[in-house]
Specification:
alpha/beta, 10 strands, Glycerol-3-phosphate (1)-acyltransferase
């Protein structure tokens, strides 16, 4: 039955996605404001196709650009986070070479960073800052890789050089930082548990195609997200301070999400079904 479900989900996804790719390509090339919002609508529909229910606690700031620092569990994170809000991503350069995935990433206006070329860091930092100043929400996976879904890996402060320009640069921008903690908690309405979460997580040397096939056959999933309050980017003296703050906040929030504990005084909203 899992193979049958995976086939139906994949066929539906391709039938839905392929005709829309030229449309988004045209929106990006024309500079239309819909190039930013169209992927948000698209990924909400993809969540419906896959069967992902998203519980969101908190909101991203709407008026100004936001650097969204998040933990990373699976390739599915891209669709889940994009279904929550109109976002773009900071991605490693290798993603721009992956078959099919590279086109989806480029159509979502991702910023590709070569981690091996330190000389490129300042250029990419300024590009990201320009996007933030223009009001974009840019997601940055600070672990530098994905985890097994049972916790948060140490944040790599060196990676923050690509998203934290010099203090003089950040002071010219009204830009905020918000943390986003993500945890996959249920399948078919039942808790995944410590042993079940790695079935959703894509990490280590897992092959993407085979993992995607197994995940699509799992059944309806639930993802829980907690978004922290906005903090001005120029409040942080440097990348190490930014890395330390975001890691501590996200680690604590992921622990609470995995334990099923809501934030005090707030109500989670369900997204990804409309």
């Amino acid at each position: 039955m899992q193979n049958v479900r995976a086939f139906i989900v994949l066929a539906t996804f391709l039938a839905f996605t392929l005709p829309l790719m030229p449309l988004q390509h045209a929106l990006v090339r024309s500079g239309s404001r819909f190039a930013r919002t169209f992927p948000h609508w698209y990924h909400r529909q993809v969540c419906r196709i896959i069967g992902v229910r998203i519980h969101v606690d908190g909101d991203l700031a709407r008026k100004n650009g936001v650097l969204v620092v998040s933990n990373h569990v699976s390739w599915l994170d891209i669709t889940v986070l994009s279904a929550v809000a109109p976002v773009s991503f900071v991605a490693k350069r290798e993603v721009s070479t992956w078959p099919f995935v590279k086109w989806l990433a480029k159509l979502q206006r991702s910023v590709f960073v070569d981690r091996e070329r330190r000389t490129q860091t300042s250029t990419k930092a300024n590009e990201i800052l320009d996007r933030l100043e223009a009001g974009d929400h840019v997601v940055f996976f600070a672990e530098g890789t994905s985890s097994d879904g049972n916790g948060v890996l140490p944040f790599r402060s060196a990676l923050f050089a690509a998203v934290k320009p010099s203090r003089d640069d950040t002071e010219r921008a009204d830009v905020a930082v918000q943390t986003l903690a993500l945890a996959y908690t249920k399948v078919h309405g039942l808790p995944l548990g410590r042993r079940g979460r790695p079935k959703v997580a894509w990490y280590g040397d897992m092959e993407m195609a085979s993992h995607a096939w197994r995940l699509l056959g799992l059944g309806p999933l639930e993802a829980n997200i907690r978004i922290g309050p906005p903090v001005p980017l120029d409040d942080f003296a440097g990348r190490k301070a930014l890395a330390r703050y975001t890691e501590e906040k996200i680690r604590d929030d992921v622990v609470q999400l995995l334990r099923g504990r809501p934030t005090e005084g707030s109500q989670a909203r369900l997204r990804g079904e409309a």
